[in-house]
Design brief:
The chain is an alpha+beta fold and 313 residues long. It has helices at 32-46, 75-78, 163-169, 183-191, 197-202, 212-221, 235-255, 258-261, and strands at residues 4-6, 50-56, 62-63, 85-91, 94-99, 104-108, 114-119, 130-137, 143-149, 156-160, 295-299, 302-306. The structure holds a DNA duplex (16 and 16 nucleotides).
Length: 313
DNA sequence: CCGGACTCCTGTGCGC
DNA sequence: TGCGCACAGGAGTCCG
């Protein structure tokens, strides 16, 4: 089968003259901006908090790599029980909770993962698909639970005995963080593969943090066809792509997850993500720049939308 | 080594 | 109304 095959249009009767999306845009997939936003909203609760205990409900999702030889920690301790949280770290789409001088838990949300802090007096949210619960007491003595939920189980948690282990075992496989990627490093990453640039952008070992949504958006903004072989991009294209990636991620972080949901456009319509996504989920709708119908495709097993005129390859 | 295909998993939305 | 099916997606693994 070809890597390029036509994809069924999204929403057969989607309004052609409107930016409003129909079915595609109800959920924001966790990519780099969502993880950065999550980090910022969790920090006030978690920094300095004490982890009292941990319930590991789904061992296959909450993974405990082989401990370093001579490490005597119990499973509870390896999941930070008895430790204070010192800092949160993000690289690409992954978030690490680092305890003071001790164990680290790295969380990857996959497609449907959620990590939430719920103060004890609040109602416990949906218990289904909860894989790990940490009982926590915040710095200002608020008791609560940190809950990892992931219906589809594409995400998971990984425990490490130290931040050094996390970097050595897991984060060393990731490319540079997309939010701060330099043109030079992007050129280096893309130059070493003949794969299509859309596919290359999604490869976390080349560039960490770009997922399907922002890949399409960045390519559109940079006026680069997703079908260009990565190592065939010229210097100008790479520079535009780097700028587009950084700008789009930064803007998405500024928009900050929840505020997006409340967005209203000038006409007072409750627009949603469609207001920010110029191509993603808009196959067969008109390009916002030239009016040409956007082309939906599958590239490397991923749905892709681009403008055949603005992004001529 | 490289790149493409397959796999995991479940909620959703559509057609019959 | 309800059933069954196709589909979405990140990333590890497998294979040519």
């Amino acid at each position: 089968m070809s890597i390029l095959s036509p994809m069924r249009p999204v929403g057969p009767d989607a309004p052609a003259d409107s930016l409003r999306c129909t079915t595609q845009d109800k959920a924001e997939l966790p990519e780099l901006p969502e993880i950065e936003h999550l980090k910022r909203t969790l920090e006030p609760w978690l920094l300095g908090a004490r982890v009292e205990s941990c319930r590991r409900l789904t061992p296959s999702v909450v993974r405990l790599p082989t401990p370093a030889p001579g490490c005597p920690r119990t499973v509870q301790a390896r999941l930070m029980a008895g430790h204070h949280i010192d800092r949160l770290r993000r690289h690409g789409k992954q978030l690490a909770i680092v305890s003071r001088g001790g164990p680290v838990v790295c969380v990857h949300l996959g497609m449907t993962g959620e990590l939430r802090f719920v103060p004890r007096q609040n109602r416990v949210p949906d218990r289904r698909h909860v894989h790990c619960i940490w009982t926590i007491r915040t710095r200002d003595d608020t008791p609560g639970h940190l809950i990892f939920r992931d219906p589809r189980r594409f995400g998971g948690c990984w425990a490490f005995d130290s931040e050094a282990d996390l970097h050595e075992v897991r984060w060393s496989r990731l490319g540079p963080d997309a939010l701060t990627i330099t043109t030079r490093n992007l050129a280096k990453a893309l130059g070493r593969t003949r794969r299509l640039v859309k596919t290359a952008l999604l490869d976390q070992s080349l560039l960490a943090g770009v997922g399907n949504i922002y890949a399409d958006e960045a390519l559109f903004r940079a006026r680069v066809s997703p079908l260009t072989p990565a190592n065939a991009l010229d210097q100008d294209q790479i520079q535009r792509l780097g700028r587009a990636v950084r700008l789009i991620l930064r803007r998405a972080i500024e928009a900050g997850g929840s505020t997006i949901r409340d967005y209203r456009d000038a006409d007072g319509r409750s627009g949603t993500f469609a207001n920010r996504h110029l191509v993603y989920g808009r196959g067969n709708q008109p390009c916002v720049k030239c009016g040409t119908l956007l082309t939906p495709l599958v590239v490397g097993q991923r749905s892709t939308v681009y403008c055949p005129v603005c992004q001529a390859g």
